[in-house]
Amino acid sequence: SVAALTAYTRSLIEYASKVKDAEKRTGASTEALQTLGHAAKLTGSDFDAVVRSFKDLSKARQEALDQPGSKAAQVFRALGIDAKALKDAKLEDLFRAIGRAFGAQDFGASELAMVTELLGRAGAELLPLFKEGMDELEQKARDAGIALRDPVLKTLEEIGDQLDTLKAQLRGPFAEALVETLRLSNQLTSS
Questions:
Q1: Nearest-CA neighbor of 75 among 45, 122, 121, 112?
Q2: What is the spatial distance between Cα 146 and Cα 131, in angstroms, rounded to a whole number?
Q3: Largest CA distance in the chain
């Protein structure tokens, strides 16, 4: 139906905007955000947890580079991630390295504290993703064509921005017409 198509189009535009905004906030690629977000969803978490974890990971990486004796630096080392990898790796690749380390090894009682040190509270939500095979789930998302290409995302985001501007432009005239209609209606009913 037309209503269903309209609703799906609106959700697609909102999704594209969300992905592009996350790209700007985290520096991660839209492809990585989408495939990791989908994989997270399959394991009980979601796209937003991935985005939050990227922001916390960026802070933890900087802390570890600035203060080699910090708790974050210690956790990176325990996961087998050295200073060179911290400095050189893209954020999404660093995230994947962390995920692989947690997926390959059980860190016992300290696991939750370790993952939250690097990925914040969202890290606890993402542990099932790491344990259930992040790489395989992400590859399945790629193979299924889950990730929209950047030009498509950019176009949808621009359409969303244009629609937002149009709504804002129509708000004033619509409100004025509504007020005038209500005023006339009140006059008619009170006469």
A1: 112
A2: 22
A3: 82
Q: Is the pLDDT of residue 191 over 80?
A: no
Instruction: Find tokens 């203060």 and name the residue.
Output: 67
79 and 97 Cβ atoms separated by less than 8 Å: yes
- Give the distance, in angstroms, between the CA of residue 46 and the centroid of all CA atoms in the same chain: 8
Q: What is the pLDDT of residues 121-157, one digit of tens each?
A: 999 999 999 999 999 999 999 999 988 888 888 888 8
- Cα dihedral sign, 159-160-161-164: positive
Closest residue by Cα to residue 131 from 103, 156, 153, 155:
103
d(CA 89, CA 107) in angstroms, rounded, equals: 23
Tokens standing for residue 19: 């992905």
DSSP string, 21-43: HHHHHH---HHHHHHHHHHHHHT
pTM of the model: 0.80
Burial of 159 (0-12, 13-18, 19+ CB in 10 A): middle
Q: Which sign, positive or negative, has the C-alpha torsion 123, 53, 130, 100?
A: negative
**DSSP assignment of 129-179:** HHHT-HHHHHHHHHHTT-SPPHHHHHHHHHHHHHHHHHHHHHHHHHHHHHH
